[in-house]
Amino acid sequence: MGSQDGLAHISMAYIDPGDIALVPDPGYPIYSASILLAGGELYPMPLLASNRFLPDLAAIPPEIAQRAKMMTINYPNNPVAASADEGFFTEVVEFAKKYDILICHDIAYSELAYDGFKPTSFMQIPGAKEVGIEFYSLSKTYNMAGCRLASP
Ligand SMILES: Cc1ncc(COP(=O)(O)O)c(C=O)c1O
Question: How sure is the predictor about 146, in pLDDT bands with cuts at 50, 70 and 90?
């Protein structure tokens, strides 16, 4: 129910047994659980203060990136509350194109920003629509937990 349903089922649709998925660590639990349920393997991407709580894409070994089919990212982030800028998302688009990886961006907290700050959508980035999907939630912005929306 809600965006969690989509985040779970994208793995069922896209991951085959033995495929690698790159997931943020720490991260909202469904990212990892859905990969394991689909028979995939996890490669955790640490979110460290020293890298502004962004995954260090250069630290991912090329042999892992070549086997990876999917990467999940989430900004504004739960649980570390960091945001990502256009520069990071641009790197993600380049990485996805280089290694042919599907990017799943969870933007559940896009409206919970203050003092005029506007979180960046992955979809703003040139090329992002060719490599990615963005998941939005009605439960944070509108207190409508469990509601679903789809368009043809
Ligand atoms: C980061 C993140 N993504 C997704 C969800 C799921 O939201 P929904 O209620 O739309 O399933 C949550 C809910 O807590 C969340 O924290």
Answer: confident
pLDDT tens per residue, range 8-44: 999 999 999 999 999 999 999 999 999 999 999 999 9
Closest ligand 1 atom, CA of 28? 1
pTM value surpassing 0.85: yes
| Residue 151 within any structural domain of the chain | no
Does 2 sit in the ligand 1 pocket, CB within 6 Å? yes
Question: Which ligand 1 atom sits nearest the alpha carbon of residue 137?
Answer: 10
Which residues span the domain enclosing 14?
3-141
For residue 147, being part of any structural domain is answered with: no
63 CA → ligand 1 middle, Å: 31
Atom of ligand 1 nearest to the CA of 78: 1
What whole-number distance in Å separates Cα of residue 23 and Cα of residue 31?
Answer: 7
CATH code, domain carrying 123: 3.40.640.10
